[in-house]
Design a protein that fits this description.
two-stranded antiparallel sheet; mainly alpha; 71% helix
């Protein structure tokens, strides 16, 4: 072979790499569309949109004032006999009167939130966004929850105002907090979760309304004739007094166990809704060796059903 010339040395690949292609450090690339923090930010954004849309419902102009007035009607115009204190009587009275309105608000506005996108024909556009199914479901769940919680707060404030006007002092906020947190909030979580699951499974809001009204009417009929066992009375209708919430009564432990039972069912319903949600962003239960959204939903549902079964057996016993 002929000896190498200077021109050959000049054209060596090493020389080209060193002279014309200087070494540049490769930047680390991260996926900005994945991770817990990113999904939480998406959930907050979606929640804001869903809540503003629910707040813009015209029916709220009539429904909210009507619910507030009817919830405080007895306390405003009839004689109030204090059970433990005036504040405790006002708190328990508004909680019992508000229960039916919470059922209606939860069932109706959950259906509106779940089917609004399809009725407006923007569902395919929204489902094309890079967000997990949990963002879509939880945003609607939390928006309905916030709306109902707003109603609870307004009724509580109205009851305090009526108490001041009627001179039933002193004012104590603790009975309102205890009653609403123990009785109304778990019931609200239970109702909203079941409504979400029914809308996902039945896929028609009018069918959900019919099933909800029929089931509610049947249960309240059973309660009225004495069949109001703790196991199938998740809202504790006619099963509690304020004294039971403070330890002065006999049912404090049973109420606590029954609230856990309701929360377990609510968690199972949300997991079931996630599993059967029509938007299939992932397939299977495992992705890259880890449980994906469906996998976690199945695990949470199994755990929730197990908790509800164990706690339910304690209620029966």
């Amino acid at each position: 072979s002929s000896p190498a010339t200077r021109l050959d040395e000049f054209e060596k690949p090493d020389y080209k790499a060193s002279a014309f292609l200087p070494r540049v450090p490769v930047l680390e690339v991260t996926r900005v569309n994945e991770g817990i923090r990113v999904n939480v930010n998406k959930l907050i954004t979606a929640l804001g949109v869903e809540f503003r849309l629910l707040r813009a419902e015209r029916s709220l102009i009539i429904l909210l004032p009507l619910a507030i007035i009817l919830s405080i009607l007895d306390l405003a115009f009839f004689k109030v006999v204090p059970e433990v204190s005036y504040s405790a009587t006002y708190a328990s009275g508004t909680a019992k009167a508000l229960l039916l309105f919470l059922i209606g608000v939860t069932v109706f506005y959950t259906g509106e939130a779940m089917h609004r996108d399809r009725e407006a024909r923007i569902e395919p556009v929204l489902w094309a966004t890079p967000a997990p199914n949990s963002v879509f479901l939880l945003s609607k769940f939390l928006a309905t929850l916030l709306l109902a919680l707003s109603l609870i707060v307004l009724v509580g404030l109205a009851a305090i105002v009526i108490q001041i006007i009627r001179g039933h002092t002193p004012i104590d906020a603790q009975p309102f907090l205890i009653t609403y947190l123990v009785i109304l909030v778990p019931s609200l979580l239970f109702l909203t979760a079941i409504s979400i699951a029914l809308n996902v499974l039945l896929r028609n809001k009018y069918v959900v309304y019919m099933v909800s009204v029929g089931t509610g009417a049947g249960l309240f009929y059973l309660y009225s004739i004495g069949y109001n066992h703790w196991l199938y009375n998740p809202l504790l209708y006619q099963l509690w007094k304020y004294a039971d919430l403070t330890g002065a009564g006999n049912n404090q432990a049973r109420i606590f166990v029954q609230r856990l039972y309701c929360l377990g069912i609510a968690s199972a319903c949300l997991s079931l809704a996630h599993l059967f949600f029509q938007r299939k962003s992932t397939t299977g239960l495992i992705t890259a060796g880890r449980p994906n959204g469906n996998g976690w939903s199945l695990l949470i549902m199994i755990a929730s059903v197990a908790i509800a079964a164990v706690v339910g057996s304690m209620i029966v016993a």
